[in-house]
Amino acid sequence: MLRFALRRILQIIPTVIVVALLIFVIFSVVPGSFAASLFSDGRTNADPQLIARITAQFGLDKPLHERFFTYIWDLARFDLGTSFRTRLPVIQMINERMWASLELATAAMVFAIVIGVPLGFLAALRPGSVLDTVTMIGAVSGLSLPQFWLGLLMMLLFALHLNWLPSFGYGDGSFRNLILPAMALGVTPLALLARTTRAGVLDVMNSDFIRTAHAKGMSETAVVRRHVARNALVLIITTVGLQFGSLIGQAVVIEKLFAWPGIGSLLVDSVAIRDIPVVQGTILVIVLWFLVINTLVDLLYAAIDPRIKQE
User: Fold this and answer.
1) Interatomic CA distance for residues 214 and 256, integer angstroms
2) Where are the transmembrane segments (predicted)?
């Protein structure tokens, strides 16, 4: 198990290096610059000499390869650079926003698990029933509808018409402020979990060992509890891990829509003003979060199913 864990952890390093290279190249060749964005409002004349001086001040006039090696050296020292706009360390800015994003992603995932897994399980136990049909229609709808559109509908209904919940903002960090953005973000993983759970449970229930358990006289409850649930768990855990790992990235739109102070809204704001160190650092943290979560999921279902360690 230790060798399996080390192998999975070491696989993160080359992936992070490749992602860092792609991020650096992409944001080095895209049109526009931070210096030019300072004069994009039209209220100040864009003096070419001033733009050149600002560009040199932030080291953007250096050759591409020199900037890249400096960037990689800083990453090796866990230094994500300094924001062009605020002159604060990027890692400090991300730390200030990370908790809000983790809070939102965790609440959305809990919402998805609590509703999606039981619905998918019950639908699989009664295939073709009204519950099964309604669950699958709801799952397809949840996967098809855009999150920002659902978020707007929720704001219109629960905040404006019913006045039950605040429409946007973090406020004092209370649970009421978290409900609407978490529900809007959690609809897609909820729908996917319902479909995946149903498919996984149906696949297990059609297996030979389940028919053998029934032939031995085991009750339906005992079969489901001892055999179906455990064997379907690997697929469910994989889906939960993939969705939870990607929720930080998916939350960009929801955070802007609900004015949630997470790293997704920080990313959008930084792209708008061409604050490249913050953009690069934020994307790298989102990717690293996804890799770490998926590594933990690999270790978890390797513990559940020891055959995975042999692959």
Assistant:
1) 52
2) 12-34, 104-125, 137-162, 174-194, 232-258, 278-304
Q: Which two tokens stand for residue 211?
A: 């028919």
What Rg do the C-alpha atoms of the chain give, in angstroms? 24
Distance of alpha carbon 47 from alpha carbon 123, whole angstroms: 66
Q: What is the C-alpha separation between 122 and 118, in angstroms, rounded? A: 6
Per residue in 139-154, pLDDT (tens digit) is: 888 888 888 888 888 8
pLDDT at 63: 74
Separation of alpha carbons 88 and 200, rounded Å = 48
What are 232-283's pLDDT values in tens digits?
777 888 888 888 888 888 888 888 888 888 888 888 888 877 788 888 889 8
pTM above 0.70, yes or no: yes
Distance CA 265, CA 256 (A): 5
Cα–Cα distances (Å) from 131 to 123, 128, 192, 297, in that order, read 6, 8, 17, 30
Contacts of 274 (CB under 8 A, 6+ apart): 32, 33, 34, 36, 37, 84
- Dump pLDDT digits (tens) for 179-208: 888 888 888 899 999 988 888 888 877 777
